[in-house]
User: What shape does this take?
Amino acid sequence: MTDAPLHQTPTPTAPAGPPKGKRVQAVLQVESTTRISPRMLRVRLSGPGFAELNRNRHTDAYVKLLIADPATGLEPPYDLEALREERPADLPVRRTYTVRRWDDAQQALELDFVLHAEGGDAGIAAAWAAQAEPGDRIAMAGAGGGYTPAAESTRHLLIGDHAALPAIAAALESMPADAEGLALIHLDHEEDRQELARPAAVELRYVIGDREELLEAVTALEGWEPEDLQVFCHAERGLTKQLRRHLVRERGIAKELISVSAYWALGRIEDQFQAEKREAIGQIED
Ligand SMILES: Cc1cc2nc3c(=O)[nH]c(=O)nc-3n(C[C@H](O)[C@H](O)[C@H](O)COP(=O)(O)OP(=O)(O)OC[C@H]3O[C@@H](n4cnc5c(N)ncnc54)[C@H](O)[C@@H]3O)c2cc1C
Assistant: This one.
């Protein structure tokens, strides 16, 4: 099992959490599930475990879920060290999800899962979400994160796919009313569009169809000077590499102004995708 480092950078206003850097397993309970589009399911989780999370103010804050195969009979929290030594085949898998919304008052958080394939082809996390019922318990670590729309940016450009929609939605909601920009989101299916709360001068544009059409849409953008911009670009790995290359090399946008990250990779389960971050194929920057 490999894992990306968690960027634990709570702001001074964040409530105190567990010691920085300590990998705590927070166990939360499913409170409810809501189908917000045909292929997007919201799972609301709550419970005392909420206090164990390193709450941060990044709009792309994410948690690492630990999901055990129900056939193992294991219940969270997991003794990962013992499992690694004694039952390595039963180790829970780790899957990464954006915190779509923190509800501090109710000690709850919401995660939006793309149901990216259904039935036997569904990923472990997507299948877990699809079957989740109130009362189910799940362990998680986090939160990490690294992007927050800067108040001083004159324009925001947000580019992503279905998996990045929750992070883009959280970013749009956090912007001041006078923010300007464009959110370009690729979806495979028209019916998965969501209307997202955002400032009046931030346009929301969906690109429906082949994944490559997102690159074409970004390439066709006019009137985006490389200065005074802040860019968020998170999507499937191969596409993210192409998008980054275009933004940096062809548009001349400074790397420091771009939050770029792959959220998943075609044909790879997350374990492999994370492991490949240490190899050439996993590098987004060239
Ligand atoms: C920081 C971060 C935040 C993320 N936030 C979210 C989020 O809020 N919501 C969300 O749904 N996802 C999010 N993701 C992506 C999610 O972690 C991956 O999609 C993950 O692989 C899903 O796990 P799984 O067990 O369902 O599928 P896996 O077992 O990992 O993969 C099974 C198969 O499905 C394919 N696959 C995986 N994800 C997708 C997808 N999105 N579309 C199409 N095919 C896919 C894989 O290539 C593989 O062939 C985020 C990823 C990162 C790194």
Remarks:
- Residues 153 and 228 are 6 Å apart (CA to CA).
- Residues 62, 95-98, 112-114, 116, 123-126, 162-163, 166, 263-270 surround flavin-adenine dinucleotide (CB under 6 Å).
- The mean pLDDT is 90.
- The domain at 155-282 is CATH 3.40.50.80 (Rossmann fold).
